[in-house]
Structure formats: C-alpha cells, structure tokens
Amino acid sequence: xxxxxxxxxxxxxxxxxxxxxxxxxxxxxxxxxxxxxxxxxxxxxxxxxxxxxxxxxxxxxxxxxxxxxxxxxxxxxxxxxxxxxxxxxxxxxxxxxxxxxxxxxxxxxxxxxxxxxxxxxxxxxxxxxxxxxxxxxxxxxxxxxxxxxxxxxxxxxxxxxxxxxxxxxxxxxxxxxxxxxxxxxxxxxxxxxxxxxxxxxxxxxxxxxxxxxxxxxxxxxxxxxxxxxxxxxxxxxxxxxxxxxxxxxxxxxxxxxxxxxxxxxxxxxxxxxxxxxxxxxxxxxxxxxx
Length: 290
Hints:
The protein is mostly helical. It folds into 2 domains: 1-156, no CATH class; 181-275, no CATH class. The chain has 15 helices and no strands. It has helices at residues 4-15, 21-35, 37-58, 62-80, 83-88, 90-104, 106-127, 141-171, 175-180, 187-202, 208-233, 237-249, 251-267, 269-273, 281-289.
C-alpha cells in the first residue's frame, strides 16, 4: 500500500515459489480490493512471468492458477461487495482448473500418479510385514486433477480472505471479522451445492475430489457459523484453536461443519441467537443454559 514498486517486489518475489506464492496471491487480493481491478491486473501481469516460467520449466500450474484465481475472486468481491458470492465463485474456478489440468497436464499428472504409486507401494510393504497382504487404492489422473482443482479453489479463497483481513486491519479494524461471521447462503444455493456434491460422489471414487469443490462454499459458511457462535457465547480463542485442530484431523468434523451450513441456510441460526427486543443479556444466557 506504500507504493506500486513495493507491491511489485513482494508479488514477483513469491510468484515463482511453490512455498510462498500464497503471499503473492494475498497481495494481489489486497491491491485489487483497495486500488481496483486495473491495478490488480497490472500487478498480476508481472506476477505471471515467474509463475509462467515455473509452468514452462516443470509443468506445475499451481502458482499461476492460484494467482489468477485469487485475483478474479478479489475482482468479484470488489465489484459486488458480496463475500458469499466471491466465495461461491471458487466452485467454477476449481472446476475449470481441474478440467484444464486434466486436458493439458497429462505429463504432469503422470508424474504425480507415479509419486503416489511409489509412496503407496512403500506403505503396502511396511503394512504387509505383519503377515497380512495390504493393498492400497491408487488415485488415477482424473482423481488427481480434481484434487488439484479443489486445492486451488480452497487456496484462492484463503488468500482472498487474507487479503481482505489485511485491508480491514489497515483501513477498518475489526471489519473483516464481522463480515466473515455473516457468511451464509440461501436454501436454494446450499441445496444446489449439496446435490451437485452428491451427484459427484455417486459417479464413483474418481469424482469424489470433484464433489469436494462443490462443498467448499458450504465449508467456509460452516466455519463462519462456528465463529459467530463462539462470539455469541463469549468463548475464548482457545476453543477455536481446539475446534480447528479437530477439523483438520477428523473428517466427521468437516462433514458436521457442512451439515451445519446447510441447516443454517434454512433456519438462520444467527437470527435465532440475536436477543429478542426487551430481553436482557442475563435472561438470554439463562434461557440458553436451560
């Protein structure tokens, strides 16, 4: 925010790195949200040089798709001032990314499939030492492409949220938290996403990663609901830390978050938690404790 040169240096420095391209993507989001689509596109054009070189040299499109995807989401948020819509846009972003990798990244996918095969083969040998033969399922190119698409979509949303957080910290402290805690989808959108995910799962194992792309907006809406609940109950950050640890390592917790978002689309829990007119805080807490 100090100047174009500073933003350019930070963005280009991380754009060609697998470890730090997320910082460049978040900077692109910040510049786009604050300065507009023109400045964001100018910065993106320079960032495409190192990320494009990485794609040409190694066939890895991850940094490039993350930078482009995050900038597109930031443009949507800038023009609409609608965070749920910007997060929802990660679905077509993930699908297009996955389809593009499946169509044009055959050699790159082949290398990843080989890496997975070697790793799982080693695991099978170690697990089979006990005497019982163990065979682990190996992902195919189509499944890997879906996983990469889902990863790009999720990372783009996270970088967008980080850029939005930076913007709020600079110009509207506390604004990001209040905006994120209102993230919610109407029943029609939540139902369509859930049905699309179920259809993907029903198509077979290879399409489960593609189904995950459709659940990403509901996952972020569910996490928003958790944050709103924690704030409403006055619980500390320690509770959130414990929740995220459970969310990262236990798949049932991830499903519960998605189901909570779907239920919230119909029941609007935040509205139900709001104190009724004429009800004191002590009376509200007493009612909830019952």
